[in-house]
Design brief:
With about 425 residues, the protein is mainly alpha-helical. The chain is about 50% helix and about 5% strand. The protein has two domains: about 60 residues, Rubrerythrin, domain 2 (Single Sheet), CATH 2.20.28; about 325 residues, Citrate Synthase, domain 1, CATH 1.10.580.10. Helix 10 crosses helix 18. The chain binds carboxymethyl coenzyme *A (CMC). Carboxymethyl coenzyme *A binds next to helix 17. The site of carboxymethyl coenzyme *A (CMC) has 20 residues, from helix 17.
Length: about 425
């Protein structure tokens, strides 16, 4: 028998198994807790709850470590491409040359979006947020691409379609929002180059691809590709646990990512930096507000549920910010404000005591601005990057024989049994 934790309650002693992960993290397996004691657990925000076993991504928040399938994210950012990293996350190992070529061809072959979907876009009010549009368009894909006969084919083709079409749909939504003609994907361009071309090529001004920006986009998407059981990934797993189709589960993930405490923070950071700029560039009033318990304002792009050290993705993103701007020979005043804000916050007792460091979203918006991506598309960029992770996590849950319908319990605090009062007696 393995290690156990002993719980004594109501004169009864129960042994709860201790499970250990491959990096030594330990958890108490409470799956028999209610049956053996009548108790459930209560854990707001699931901050102490492991919801599954997973072999995809390893995070060590105390030491700022992030690895996909065991490979440090720093190495992937330096040597890999987004497509190779997507393959790694979904399939578990790095592809050989043949597998990678086949995967790229498959992505190219599936990159077109059904022409009828264009009319959906045209009917959205001009001010619609692209995340709302993307979430509903991804859900609509099921109507255009009905279920395939074999489960294997359904899984493989649906995953590829999603990876490929979400990118096309994102660029399409941008073009339509500008009232411009859509640019189709090209088979001679890589995944990232294709996206930039679909966004920025116009009939009057052909887009000149800049290899530096293509590389920056590759790194941006690699850094966002997975982050274990975060809010949107948990949404994908929970919604998927009802055995809904993958499009619907991913659509739920996109909706979850939209929030400013999660993926929406990249847009919120730029808005905050712009507010600081507009108010004359003074940092202190914003730091003061962030520390005020009675003010809901938070320093966007700071803090993380798991990282209690510098987010390793933010480190890479910050370096990339400088490199991209330097190569483009551009100066972004928001970068100066961001660096000043970081410097002040990291010396402030409140931020030090609460272990609040810049997260991935703090510098990412400045890179996206340099590419020409509009602010309201930032979270869409995060969503495209996170697709491989969502897909890999969904697939892992579906392959797990113990995966159950996700259905937490609660501690009821409402009224005790009360009789119904007829309307005219109230
Ligand atoms: N500004 C001011 N105070 C903060 C911040 C912040 N950015 N983040 C946390 N705190 C406070 C928090 O209120 C808490 O105070 P108290 O104990 O008095 O209630 C204390 O610091 C400790 O917070 P925590 O327990 O570490 O935070 P959490 O796990 O509840 O929340 C978070 C994590 C990411 C929601 C939060 O840090 C936040 O709201 N940050 C700003 C939004 C943001 O940048 N989100 C992107 C996260 S990274 C991308 C992603 O993966 O989604």
């Amino acid at each position: 028998m393995g290690e156990h934790v002993t719980l004594t309650y109501g004169g009864k002693t129960v042994e709860l198994p201790l499970v250990v992960g491959s990096e030594g993290e330990k958890a108490i397996d409470i799956s028999r807790l209610r049956r053996d004691t009548g108790l459930i657990t209560l854990d707001y925000g699931y901050a102490n709850t492991g919801s599954c076993y997973s072999a995809i991504t390893y995070m060590d928040g105390e030491n700022g470590i992030l690895r996909y399938r065991g490979i440090p994210v720093e190495e992937l950012a330096e040597h890999s491409t987004f497509i190779e990293t997507a393959y790694l996350l979904i399939n578990g190992t790095l592809p050989n040359r043949t597998q990678l070529n086949r995967f790229s061809v498959l992505l190219n072959d599936n990159s077109l979006v059904h022409e009828d979907m264009r009319s959906f876009y045209e009917k959205y009010p001009r001010a619609s947020h692209p995340m709302g549009i993307l979430s509903s368009m991804v859900n609509a894909l099921r109507s255009f691409y009905p279920e395939l006969q074999s489960v294997e084919e359904e899984i493989n083709i649906t995953m590829t379609r999603l990876l490929s079409k979400a990118r096309t749909m994102a660029a399409m939504s941008y073009k339509i929002s500008r009232g411009h003609k859509m640019v189709y994907p090209r088979s001679d361009l890589t995944y990232c180059a294709n996206f930039l071309n679909m966004m920025f090529d116009t009939p009057v001004k052909p887009y000149r691809l800049d290899s530096e920006l293509v590389e920056a986009l590759n790194v941006f998407w690699i850094l966002h590709a997975d982050h274990e059981q975060n809010c949107s990934t948990s949404a994908v797993r929970v919604v998927g646990s009802g055995r809904v189709n993958l499009y619907a589960a991913i659509s739920a993930g996109i909706a979850a990512l939209w929030g400013p405490l999660h993926g929406g923070a990249n847009q919120a950071v730029i808005e905050m930096l712009t507010d600081i700029q507009r108010s004359g560039g003074s940092i202190m009033p914003f730091i003061k507000r962030a520390k005020d318990k009675n003010d809901p304002f938070r320093l966007m792009g700071f803090g993380h549920r798991v990282y209690k050290a510098y987010d390793p993705r933010a480190k890479i993103m910050k370096e990339m910010c400088h490199r991209v701007l330097q190569n483009l020979k551009r100066h972004d005043p928001l970068l100066d404000i961001a660096m000043k804000l970081e410097e002040v916050a990291l010396q402030d007792a409140f931020f030090v005591e609460n272990n609040l460091y810049p997260n991935v979203d703090f510098y990412s918006g400045i890179v996206l601005r340099a590419m020409g991506i509009p602010t309201n598309m930032f979270t869409v960029m995060f969503a495209i990057g996170r697709l491989p992770g969502w897909i890999a996590q969904w697939k892992e849950s579906m392959d797990d024989p113990n995966w159950k319908l996700c259905r937490p319990r609660q501690i009821y605090t409402g009224p005790k049994k009360t009789d119904y009062v007829p309307l005219d007696e109230r």
